[in-house]
Amino acid sequence: MAAALPYRDLNSYLRQRFGERVQKITLDAGLTCPNRDGRVGTGGCLYCNARGSGTGAWVRGQSLAAQMAEGMSRLGRRYGAAKFIAYFQSFSNTYAPLARLKDLYDAVLDFPQVVGLSIGTRPDCLPDEVLDLLAGYARERLVWLELGLQSAHDATLARLNRGHDVACFTAAVCRAAAQGLAVVAHVILGLPEEGPEEIAATAAYLGRLPLHGVKMHLLYVVKDSGLARLHAAGEYACLTEDRYVNLAADFIERLPPHLVIHRLTSDPHPEELLAPAWCLDKSRVLGRLQEEFARRGCRQGDRWDG
Ligand code: SF4
C-alpha cells in the first residue's frame, strides 16, 4: 500500500467517496468572461490571454458532447476510470442566461458515467438563481464551485486586473456554502510583489472560510498576455522550481487539514507557455514537493493557526 501523502489529495478523496478512481474531464462550453467583454473590464487578468485559461476546444468546433466522449475515452484508457466529473473550465462558466447554463450542465449530466459537476467561475458572477440551480444539482450529486481568488491581498488583485476584491470573494464563498455547495478556491503562487508573508496570509485567510478545497497554481507566462509584456520588458521574473517547491510546502503547511488539495501546481499548454520551462515537467515538481515535505517532516495543517 502506498504511503499516505502529507496533504489531503484529491484522488484519495474521490476514491473514498466513490470507491474507485474518478477523473475530471476538462470542458470548454464557449462562454466568455465579464473581465473581457466589458461588463467588468476588457483586458482580462494579467496572466490570461484570449483563450481564457481554457482548452480552446469550442473554437476548434468541438461540441460539449464530443469533448465528453473524447475525454471519457482518453482518460478511461489511461487510468482505467469509468466515472467522471465534468469540469467547465474555460472562461466564466456561470456567465450566461440561466436557461443556457442549465442546458449546458444538463447536457453533460445526461452521460451516465458523470458523477459530478465542477464549475469554474469568478466570485462576482454568481447570481442567486445560478446558485439555486447548482444547489439543486448538489442535492443529488457532487458539485464543486471553483472560484478564482488568487491572492487575499487587494493590492495584488488590482495589480492583476482581477476586477474584484477580496471582500467579493468572501461574500461569494459564504453565499455558496450557505446553499450547501462545496467551494474550491484557486490561488496562485509567484504573483508580482508577493513573497512568503503574503502567501502565508492568503493561506490563513482561506483557513477561516467555509471551503471544501484549494487549487494551487504557479504563475506562468503565456503568449499574448499582459504578463508576457511585463516578462519581455524584464519587469517580472518567474519563480524558480526550488522557490516554488518551498513556497508551496509553506502554503500547504498553513492550510487546515480538512481542505482537499485539488491541484499542487499548474499544467500549462506547452504551445502557449513562454516561461518558466521547468513547470512542464509536472511529475518532477510533484516529486520534489514530496521530498520537501519528507525533508521538513511536516504535513498539511502543521502551521495552521486555527
Ligand atoms: S476571470 Fe478567468 S477567463 Fe476572465 S480574464 Fe481572468 S483568468 Fe481570464
What features would you describe in this structure?
The chain has one domain: Aldolase class I (TIM Barrel), CATH 3.20.20.70. The protein contains 10 helices and 9 strands. The protein has helices at residues 10-18, 64-79, 98-109, 128-138, 154-159, 166-178, 196-207, 226-232, 241-253, 282-296, and strands at 22-27, 83-88, 114-121, 142-150, 182-189, 213-218, 221-222, 260-263, 273-275. The strands form 2 sheets. Strands 1-2-3-4-5-6-8 form a 7-stranded parallel sheet, sandwiched between helices. It has a two-stranded antiparallel sheet with strand order 7-9. Helix 3 (98-109) links the parallel strand 2 and strand 3 (114-121). Helix 7 packs parallel to helix 9. The chain is globular. The two termini are 32 Å apart. It binds iron/sulfur cluster (SF4). Iron/sulfur cluster is lined by residues 33, 35-36, 44-45, 48, 52-53, 91-92, 122, 148.
Structure summary:
The chain is α/β, with parallel strands linked by helices and 306 residues long. It contains ten helices and nine strands.
The CATH class: Alpha Beta
Number of strands: 9
Ends distance: 32 Å
State the order of secondary-structure elements, H for helix, E for strand.
Answer: HEHEHEHEHHEHEEHHEEH
Kindly report the name of the CATH homologous superfamily.
Answer: Aldolase class I
Number of helices: 10
Radius of gyration: 18 Å
Strand proportion, as a percent range, falls in 15-25%
Shape assignment: globular
Share of helix, binned? 25-40%
